[in-house]
Amino acid sequence: MCNEPRKIHEVFFFLAIYLISIGTGGHKPSLESFGADQFDEDHIVERKQKMSFFNWWNCALCSGLILGVTLIVYIQDNINWGTADIIFTLVMALSLVVFIIGRPSYRYRIPCGSPLTPMLQVLVAAFSKRKVPYPSNPDQLYEVPKFHGNNRKFLCHTKKLSRETKSLEASKCNYS
Q: Contact 161/145 with Cβ under 8 angstroms?
């Protein structure tokens, strides 16, 4: 027989769940982009290291998920919840210590301008030009001049999202 939870317990539970989702949504993309900022795209060796970093990142993420849903659940069911909570706490503390120890060697990119300004400019431009017909010639589309970019490749312009169109146009595409 299960006892009905008190209202304060329900409020505390859902508040904790919402805070976890907000925290996860905030730190995961930040950590990945922070990790990517540690490598210089202009150096071949560091570009390879960046690819290796993301391979290890995904391996560690998937391993943590597998251990979290197998080993920790096994410990919760067969030993007790307190032991599983202590393991979680120790793993989080260890990861925080490793992050803080590496802090002096991190590269920090100084942001220039507000990140919201370009997003708002795109939204305003998209809304104001929503009824403008698509040009028949892709050369009539606006693109950032080459001297503004960092030698990045541009994506091909497509009219459809089907695989056939993408592969056909990708074979004809000239990258800047």
A: no
Q: What integer is the mean pLDDT of 11-32?
A: 86
71-91 burial code (b ≥16 CB/10 A, e <16): ebeebeeeeeeeebeebeeee
**CA distances (Å), 131 to each of 39, 70, 125, 134, 135, in order?**
41, 52, 11, 9, 12
The C-alpha angle with vertex 60 and arms to 58 and 62, in degrees rounded to 5, equals: 65
What is the rounded CA–CA span in Å between residue 36 and residue 54? 8
Indicate if the alpha-carbon torsion angle 53, 55, 59, 65 is positive or negative: positive
Helical ranges in the chain per DSSP H: 7-36, 44-69, 71-78, 81-101, 116-128, 163-172
Note the pLDDT tens digit of each residue in 122-175: 899 888 888 888 777 777 776 666 555 555 566 666 666 444 444 444 444 444
pTM of the model: 0.53
